[in-house]
Amino acid sequence: MRGADTSGGPIVGSDADGNRVLFVCTANVCRSPMAEAISKALAEEQSVPWRASRAGVKALVGEGLSPRANAALEEIGIHPGEHRARQVDPRMLQEADLVLTMTLNHANILRRLSPPNSDKVHTLVAFANGTIEGEGIPDPYGQSMTAHRASVRQLLSYLGEVVRRMGREQ
To answer: Which one from 20, 30, 31, 86 is the annotated catalytic residue?
Structure first.
């Protein structure tokens, strides 16, 4: 896979009006930046217009991507580049076309934060599988490389389906 700009920057694909997707986890140093980078790489490979960004519900504001998350991405050929954790806010939810969270708890927090945008908020697993929300992506923060690799495998699987689905809807 090619490198992915994790700045929330350029849209990949051919359409400047690409899907604006916000990924949300807890601290914004592992799962959501990994999801952003993986989704951008997948969208680029499939020529799906895509603009991804990330934030956390309890962000470690200003912190970089965790070293193990970075290493796990690099093992699959994704070089995420510069990242600084950001706290989610209602404006981010309003600007997104789709908000994908790592857990049901994250989704519920965002729905309370911005009720007018709650219809955009889904857990990644439920949105990818078309199922009832419940299962989530476990947090690898502070855990082993094995835990980070497991998160990357889950994200690849679910995001592969999301990107394919969004590409079909274009």
So the answer is: 31
